[in-house]
Design a protein that fits this description.
The chain has 845 residues and is an alpha+beta fold. Helices cover 16% and strands 37% of the residues. It is built from twelve helices and 55 strands.
C-alpha cells in the first residue's frame, strides 16, 4: 500500500524509510484523522519486534509515514524458498509472539498478520509491519485467496483480514479481538515449518469455507521432524473457537520458548551471550563459596517453582471412554485406570510405556480405582450401589471399600468402611474421607481413627492424596456446593500444620484431581477454564525448603488433562487426556441403528416441544444454549460464554426454555432470546415443565440432601414440602404427577400432588431418565456390563427394552455422566462420543 523510499534524516543523521500513502486517504478527513490516531498508537509501541515509526505528516496533500529502515527480506520472500528449519521457525515465532504481546498490551490488534507483514532483517531479527494500517485497506480478494479483504469499518458484520490468515470470527464478520492475531500467527507458523499454507483453496469463498469448517492437515504428515510440542502449539492457535486458543500472545511466547529450550532453538543474536557474560562476570567478581551457595540456592528454588512439560506421549489407543474424574494408579510397570460409562465402569491396565489395554477380572459392580498399595500387590477400589448410606448423594458419597489382589484375585471388603474418597498411605494404612472428616485405618479396614474434621464452615471433602513419603496429605475442601469456593489444603499426617495452598477464583474455574509430584515438592491438580481442564503445580508451602510460590500452569490445551499421578521414577506425570466431540443420534427401531438427528451436530440434552416443532439443546462441549426447528432450521443461540448451561427444557408450547447453569442458578428465557429471568435457590438443578406449562419442578441441593421444589411460572412462588426431601431429578409425567429419584433407597418413584404421596415405579441401577414429549412413557437407561435403553408405560407400568447400549459410546458431560432425550417419534436420543479419551504420559522438566 503506497510507495516506499529510502531517505536520510538530516537532523538525526540516520537512514530512514518514507512510505507515501494512497491519495484517497487525503480526501476523507474522518479516515485520515483515524489513520493519524492509529499511526500515533503504533508509534508509541516500543518493542524490538515491531517496526519503529518516527513521524507522520502530510506533504502537498499526500499522507506519509517515516519509519526505521530495514534491510533484509519479508517472511514471504523467505518462504518462497521452502520450509524454514524448525529451530529458526521457533526463533522467529518467539519474536513475533513477543511483538504481538507488546501491541496487545497497548490495546492494538493487527488484524492482518501475514508473511508479507513480517520482515526478517539480515541479522535475524523479526519486525512486525503495518500495525494499525490494516483497518483502512479496501481491496477485493483475488482468485488465489491472498489479497486483503478489508474495509475501514471495525463494526461486527464487516469482513476484515487477509483470506487464508483470517480467523473464523473475521470470516463471519463478527467482532474480533486480539485472538484473531493468534489465529493468523498459527497459520504463519504452520506455513513456516510445512512450506504449505494452512488454508488455501482455489478461490476465496472456498478458502473461507475451509477456515470455518476444515482442520489443517497434520504437520507430521508433511514435516515429520516437527516436534509434537510445536504441532500442539500450532493446532491450538488454529482452534475455530477463540476461547480454545491461547488467550494471550505472552502465553504463546512462553509455550514456544519451552519448546525452544527442548530443541535447543537459538534466541536472537546477542541476547543469550550477553546474559551469560554478565552472569559469569558477577560470579568472578563476587567469588568465594558464599556466592556459589547463594547462586545454587537461587537456581534450585527457581527450578522448583517452575516445572514444565516438554514432551507428551499417548499410552492408550483403544477408543474406549475413560472417566476424567476417576483416578489412575501405577506401579512403574503397569498403569491402572477406569474405562466405560458412568454406571458400568471397569478397571483396565496398560504397560507404562504404552500399548494394548486389558480389563481386570474384578467381580464388583462398576469398580473404581482409588489407589495402589505401596508394594504394588493390590488395588484399592470403591464400588457403587453397595452401601445406601444416609444423606446427600448417598449412592455416590458412601461407597464400599475393597482390595483386589494383583495380577488377579477375589475382592475383599475392608470392614464396614464406606467413604467418598480413599487411598493408601506410604506405611500401608488406608486414608479415606467421609463428609467433613478424614480418617485412617489399618490395611484390613480395622482400627479406624479420625485424623481431621474441617468443620461446619465447609460443605465436604471431595478429593484426597498422600505425599509419596507419607508425611503430608492434600485434600480438596468445598465451602459450598456451588464451586465458588474450593480450597486445596495440606496437612501433615500427624494432624498438624493445616494450611491452604490454592483456591479457585470463580465458579467457572473449579479445581479437581489433586495429587503430588513424585519428589513431594508440588501439589499437582487440574483447573477448568470454560470446557478445558489444564494441569497446574503449586509448591505445598509447608516449609522454606519446600518453597512457597505461585501456582504454575503445566498444560494449555488443546486436550483436557485430568487425574494426574506421578510416575514411579518421577520423570513423568500420567493423566487422562480428553478431546471433546459429540454427535447427536437417535435409535431407529426400524433399522435397529443409531442415526444422526439434527444433522448429527455436536449437541447435548435435546428436549422437544409438545407438538414436536421446536427443540432446545446445548452445544457440546462449550454448553451454550440453542433452539431450532425440529429439522434443524431457524437455529438461534440463546446464551453466550462464560455462562455454561445444563439441563435445558423447552416449554410444552415451545415459547420458553428453563435451564440451569454450572454455578447452580436457574433461568427462564424466551425462545427468541428475550426476557432472561432468574429464579430458584442456590444450588438448583434441572427445571422441568408441567404439561400445562404453568409449573416447574426442580432440584435444590442442600447441605444435608437433595430436595424437590415447585416453581409457579405465573406467580413466581416457590413451594416446598417435607415429602419432597431426599429426592432429585424430578420430571413431570402427568398433570398432577412427576417422577423423581430417591437418594435414600436408590429407586424411582411417582409423586401425586393431590394425595401428596409417593408410590414405587422402578428399582435397580438407573443412570438416565427422560419423559416422552406426550408424557405417556418414562424412558431410562441402566448400568452394568450390558447397559440397556428401556421405557415404562406410565398407565400400566409395562416395561419394554428398546435396545442394548453396549455398542455405542455415549459422551460424558463435564461431571462425567451420560444423558438421554426423547424425539417426537418416541425414539431415544443420545450424544455419541466421537472424541478421544486416552491415557497420556507428560514428561516433566
Amino acid at each position: 500500500m503506497g510507495e516506499v523510499y529510502r531517505a536520510r534524516d538530516p537532523v538525526l543523521k540516520r537512514e530512514v524509510a518514507i512510505k507515501v500513502l494512497p491519495p484517497f486517504l487525503s480526501h476523507d478527513s474522518d479516515r485520515l484523522s483515524r489513520f493519524h490516531k492509529e499511526a500515533e498508537a503504533a508509534a508509541a509501541l516500543n518493542d524490538p519486534n515491531i517496526l519503529a515509526i518516527h513521524q507522520f505528516g502530510i506533504f502537498n496533500g499526500a499522507p506519509y509515514l517515516v519509519s526505521e529502515l530495514l534491510e533484509g527480506s519479508t517472511l514471504r520472500q523467505l518462504l518462497e524458498r521452502g520450509a524454514l528449519p524448525v529451530r529458526k521457525a521457533i526463533d522467529f515465532g518467539v519474536q513475533i509472539a513477543h511483538g504481538l504481546a507488546a501491541a496487545h498490551d497497548e490495546g492494538i490488534v493487527h488484524r492482518d498478520l501475514k508473511p508479507e507483514n513480517l520482515f526478517v532483517t539480515k541479522h535475524g531479527h523479526v519486525k512486525i509491519l503495518d500495525f494499525g494500517l490494516a483497518k483502512l485497506m479496501h481491496r477485493e480478494p483475488d482468485l488465489e485467496g491472498t489479497s486483503p479483504t478489508l474495509t475501514h469499518s471495525t463494526e461486527p458484520g464487516v469482513v476484515m483480514g487477509t483470506v487464508g490468515y483470517m480467523a473464523p470470527e473475521q470470516v463471519l464478520g463478527k467482532a474480533a479481538d486480539h485472538r484473531v492475531d493468534i489465529f493468523a500467527f498459527g497459520a504463519i507458523l504452520y506455513e513456516m515449518v510445512a512450506a504449505k499454507r494452512a488454508f488455501q483453496r482455489p478461490s476465496s469463498p472456498e478458502t473461507m469455507t475451509a477456515i470455518l469448517n476444515d482442520d489443517t492437515p497434520d504437520i507430521s504428515q508433511i514435516a515429520p521432524n516437527v516436534p509434537p510440542g510445536l504441532q500442539r502449539v500450532v493446532h491450538r492457535c488454529l482452534e475455530k473457537n477463540p476461547e480454545q486458543r491461547f488467550q494471550s500472545a505472552s502465553d504463546l511466547a512462553f509455550a514456544l520458548e519451552a519448546i525452544s529450550d527442548l530443541t535447543g532453538a537459538s534466541t536472537p543474536i546477542g541476547q543469550s551471550s550477553a546474559a551469560s557474560s554478565k552472569r559469569w562476570a558477577w560470579i568472578v567478581v563476587a567469588g568465594g563459596a558464599l556466592a556459589a551457595i547463594v547462586l545454587a540456592l537461587y537456581t534450585w528454588r527457581r527450578s522448583a517453582a517452575s516445572p514444565t512439560v516438554h514432551a507428551i506421549t499417548q499410552l492408550t489407543n483403544d477408543a474406549v471412554p475413560k472417566s476424567a474424574y476417576l483416578k489412575l494408579a501405577t506401579d512403574g510397570t503397569r498403569v491402572y485406570f477406569n474405562e466405560g460409562e458412568f454406571g458400568s465402569t471397569r478397571v483396565s491396565e496398560v504397560a507404562a510405556g504404552g500399548g494394548p489395554t486389558a480389563a481386570l477380572p474384578i467381580s464388583l459392580p462398576s469398580p473404581q480405582v482409588a489407589g495402589l498399595s505401596p508394594n504394588g500387590s493390590s488395588l484399592l477400589v470403591t464400588a457403587e450401589g453397595l452401601d445406601k448410606g444416609e444423606g446427600r448423594d448417598a449412592a455416590i458419597a458412601h461407597q464400599s471399600l475393597w482390595t483386589v489382589p494383583l495380577p488377579a484375585g477375589e475382592p475383599r471388603r475392608l470392614g464396614d468402611i464406606s467413604a467418598a474418597e480413599a487411598t493408601y498411605l506410604q506405611n500401608g494404612r488406608i486414608l479415606f474421607a467421609k463428609g467433613l472428616d478424614l480418617y485412617t485405618a489399618d490395611a484390613d479396614g480395622s482400627n479406624s481413627h479420625k485424623l481431621l474434621g474441617v468443620g461446619a464452615d465447609f460443605a465436604e471433602i471431595t478429593e484426597i492424596a498422600a505425599s509419596p513419603d507419607g508425611s503430608r496429605i492434600v485434600f480438596l475442601a468445598q465451602k459450598n456446593r456451588e464451586w465458588t469456593d474450593m480450597q486445596l489444603m495440606v496437612i501433615a499426617t500427624n494432624g498438624t500444620g493445616l494450611h491452604t495452598v490454592a483456591r479457585n477464583r470463580t465458579a467457572t474455574e473449579p479445581i479437581c484431581c489433586v495429587n503430588w509430584s513424585r519428589d513431594g515438592r508440588f501439589v499437582v491438580y487440574a483447573i477448568r477454564n470454560q470446557t478445558i481442564w489444564n494441569l497446574w503445580a503449586c509448591p505445598d508451602g509447608s516449609s522454606f525448603l519446600r518453597h512457597s510460590g505461585s501456582p504454575v500452569q503445566l498444560t494449555a490445551g488443546p486436550l483436557s488433562y485430568t487425574q494426574p499421578i506421578p510416575s514411579r521414577d518421577g520423570n513423568q506425570i500420567l493423566a487422562i487426556g480428553t478431546q471433546y466431540r459429540g454427535e447427536l443420534v437417535r435409535y431407529d427401531a426400524q433399522s435397529k441403528q443409531f442415526v444422526p438427528i439434527l444433522s448429527g451436530i455436536s449437541a447435548w440434552g435435546p428436549t422437544f416441544s409438545a407438538n414436536g416443532s421446536w427443540v432446545t439443546y446445548t452445544s457440546f462441549p462449550d454448553q451454550t444454549l440453542w433452539r431450532s426447528r425440529a429439522d434443524g432450521s431457524e437455529r438461534k443461540q440463546l446464551t453466550f460464554p462464560p455462562m455454561m448451561v445444563s439441563f435445558p427444557f423447552i416449554s410444552p408450547d415451545g415459547k420458553r426454555v428453563a435451564f440451569g447453569t454450572r454455578e447452580g442458578d436457574l433461568y427462564l428465557i424466551n425462545t427468541d432470546g428475550s426476557q432472561l429471568q432468574k429464579f430458584g435457590g442456590r444450588v438448583s438443578l434441572a427445571p422441568n415443565w408441567s404439561p400445562d406449562g404453568t409449573q416447574l419442578v426442580f432440584t435444590l441441593v442442600t447441605a444435608e440432601s437433595r430436595e424437590l421444589r415447585l416453581f409457579n411460572v405465573q406467580t413466581g412462588e416457590i413451594s416446598a414440602s417435607p415429602q419432597l426431601a431426599g429426592f432429585g431429578g424430578g420430571q413431570w409425567v402427568g398433570a398432577n404427577e412427576f417422577v423423581a429419584f430417591s437418594t435414600k433407597d436408590l429407586t424411582m418413584k411417582i409423586y401425586n400432588l393431590k394425595t401428596q404421596a409417593w408410590s414405587d415405579l422402578l428399582s435397580g441401577t438407573i443412570v438416565n431418565w427422560a419423559h416422552s414429549p406426550d408424557w405417556k412413557y418414562l424412558y431410562y437407561t441402566t448400568g452394568g456390563s450390558d447397559p440397556q435403553a428401556m421405557r415404562i408405560r406410565l398407565s400400566d407400568h409395562k416395561i419394554e427394552t428398546i435396545t442394548s447400549l453396549k455398542g455405542i459410546r455415549r459422551a460424558l458431560d463435564p461431571s462425567g455422566k451420560t444423558q438421554m432425550g426423547v424425539a417426537p417419534d418416541g425414539s431415544p436420543v443420545f450424544t455419541r462420543d466421537i472424541g478421544t479419551q486416552e491415557v497420556y504420559s507428560l514428561t516433566m522438566k
